[in-house]
Specification:
about 140 residues, alpha+beta, 6 helices, 4 strands
């Protein structure tokens, strides 16, 4: 479900790149809840733990990367900031703190690199297909 949101985010970033020619600012704001933010963090590949949290390893997982209360506290937020240097760069801020995307070496990354990194989701997201459920009614009980 987050691929549609990711497509919207990258559409806005693309508009920022193309609006450079006419110098008009591009500001886009979305508002949601943790239930929107967590799937977006997942599709971005952020805070992936190598060991799954289970009842038998709970105590050993106190320092895990994915900690819901820290990733999306009250008023949690994510920002994608576009910079025009010699090339277009993007920085992702989670709760106003820079995060490094898996395909980048630092929090500030070439936009082309970031877009290529998520091209699987940007080019192959068909929300209608993802949510289309075929119901089969069985008359036998």
């Amino acid at each position: 479900m987050s691929c549609v949101l990711l497509q919207d985010i990258f559409s806005a970033l693309d508009r920022a790149v193309t609006s450079k020619c006419d110098s008009s600012p591009v500001d886009v704001f979305w508002f949601g809840h943790a239930e929107t933010l967590f799937p977006l963090l997942a599709i971005l590949g952020l805070f992936n733990d190598t060991v799954k949290l289970r009842a038998d390893n709970f105590d050993a997982q106190q320092n895990r990367l994915f900690r819901g209360g820290k990733l999306s506290p009250f008023a949690g937020n994510i920002a994608f900031v576009m910079y025009e240097c010699e090339e277009f760069m993007v920085e992702v801020l989670l709760n106003e703190k820079p995060v490094t995307l898996p395909c980048c070496d630092s929090s500030l990354c070439l936009y082309a690199t970031v877009k290529k990194c998520y091209s699987k989701w940007l080019n192959n997201c068909n929300f209608k297909h993802l949510c289309d459920m075929q119901y089969h009614v069985h008359s036998e009980l």
